């Protein structure tokens, strides 16, 4: 873990992907190099070798040799651990088309080290649930897409229907009637993720032949309840009778 990372509530990390087929065919060179131990990223200006590279510092820097497993363990693990303790957490993947957002969040099955952050979070949460004593968990998932300024429920009955954005004085901003799906296992979560993924708006861009063309938000809602508290409540009710 990079120095001071544990104390930051917002961490910004950068991941560099390998050249794609199109870039290789155009004989492009890598212009990025990374010093992971100092969380630094260097960008050279192509053709200007005499100019010093531009230097940027992040909370974490990952090169083409790094796996999603490593990113999960260093960045996402503490955040998801916080969620299992009742805190809110968000992982926000940002970058131009073809930069590797889906590769990082959704991931691939092979090699296993490149499984995505979302399925790793499912596994992490269900492992916690299995080990927890005297605690009951309710896990629900929702998945929406924002495409051309319109919101769609990727897990709803009518995935093309435009949803409404609302604001509540206590709950904050929310999407009215967004479907929530109770999940009991990692497998069920994966099925829901795949189902929503198939409903996304996709298309071709010059940088990515399988571009998703939209923004999407996958949310895992976790309700945690101590069974001791439940038992006490139940005993109180019995006393009243
Ligand atoms: N770290 C990586 N290692 C190997 N291949 C990668 C890596 N990152 C991305 N790729 C490959 O690059 C291509 C584009 O990645 P991806 O679809 O994840 O981009 P994206 O940012 O989600 O794009 P869009 O916004 O257009 O949906 C994919 O073929 C993906 O497999």
From TrEMBL:
The keyword Protease does not apply. Coiled coil: none annotated. The keyword Transmembrane helix does not apply. Keywords: ATP-binding, Coiled coil, Cytoplasm, Cytoskeleton, Microtubule, Motor protein, Nucleotide-binding. InterPro entries: Kinesin-like_fam (IPR027640), Kinesin_motor_dom (IPR001752), Kinesin_motor_dom_sf (IPR036961), P-loop_NTPase (IPR027417). GO terms for cellular component: microtubule. ATP binds at residues 95-102. Gene3D superfamilies: Kinesin motor domain. Pfam families: Kinesin (PF00225). It is found in: Cytoplasm, Cytoskeleton. One of its GO terms (biological process) is microtubule-based movement. Its main location: cytoplasm. GO terms for molecular function: ATP binding; microtubule binding; microtubule motor activity. Residues 9-241 form the Kinesin motor domain. Belongs to the TRAFAC class myosin-kinesin ATPase superfamily. Kinesin family. This is Kinesin family member 17. It comes from Sinocyclocheilus anshuiensis. The lineage of its organism: Eukaryota, Metazoa, Chordata, Craniata, Vertebrata.
